[in-house]
Write a structure and sequence with these properties.
Blueprint (H helix, E strand, L loop, with lengths): L1 H21 L2 H45 L11 H25 L3 H21 L6 H17 L7 H13 L5 H21 L4
């Protein structure tokens, strides 16, 4: 039975790697930020969303990719604790700068509020990471699906299957335990509910 379990794990690994790559936090953040921008003010809001996506998703991914190329961390998922905290610190700084620009330049309140709550959520994840490796993949996926469902309607509920798929991939790759992906998913959804409750809406 042990041998069979190991064989299944090896067979599942390529699929799990593809899922983790396609559903990584950067992709969720960019898509969700653009969607929130559109919801906040149509085409004009989408332009603001592009600015927000640059600071919240694109620049952090550039920072991570550059670190991988220079050998500062092993891969794009940055599993080790100390490098993970360095990356999260950069993300906090980048999102903070983006938020300041959005507020200063008069972006829609719904989008600025969302980015502000994102900043708080990343800070919470960083705090948890100092003591426990909670799944950021699952937190971002669950938070994104939740906020989009609240904004655009229940027809997006089936997207939670992507959250489950993300959780499966992280466990198969042995990057996280079942407890860590469940905790990330619950925290992400809770943060999104709080975000929806406090940000202004059109």
């Amino acid at each position: 039975m042990v041998a069979c379990s190991r064989e299944e794990g090896v067979r599942d690994r390529p699929a799990a790697e593809r899922v983790s790559y396609l559903l990584e936090p950067k992709n969720w953040i960019i898509a969700t930020t653009l969607a929130v921008g559109w919801h906040s003010d149509g085409a004009a809001g989408l332009a603001w969303g592009t600015v927000a996506a640059l600071f919240a998703g694109v620049l952090p991914m550039v920072f991570i990719s550059r670190g991988v190329r220079r050998g500062r961390w092993d891969d794009r998922y940055v599993g080790a604790k100390r490098p993970r905290l360095i990356v999260l610190s950069f993300i906090i700084a980048s999102v903070g700068i983006g938020l300041a620009l959005l507020v200063g330049l008069g972006a829609p309140g719904e989008l600025s509020g969302y980015i502000g709550c994102m900043l708080g959520s990343v800070a919470v994840l960083a705090g948890i990471t100092t003591v426990w490796k909670i799944s950021i993949h699952c937190a971002v996926a669950s938070g994104s699906v939740t906020i989009l469902t609240l904004l655009f309607g229940p027809w997006l509920v089936p997207a939670y299957l992507l959250v489950a798929l993300t959780a499966w991939s992280r466990v198969v790759l042995k990057d996280h335990t079942a407890a860590q992906v469940i905790a990330g998913s619950v925290l992400g959804a809770a943060a999104a509910v709080v975000t929806y409750a406090i940000i202004p809406h059109r």
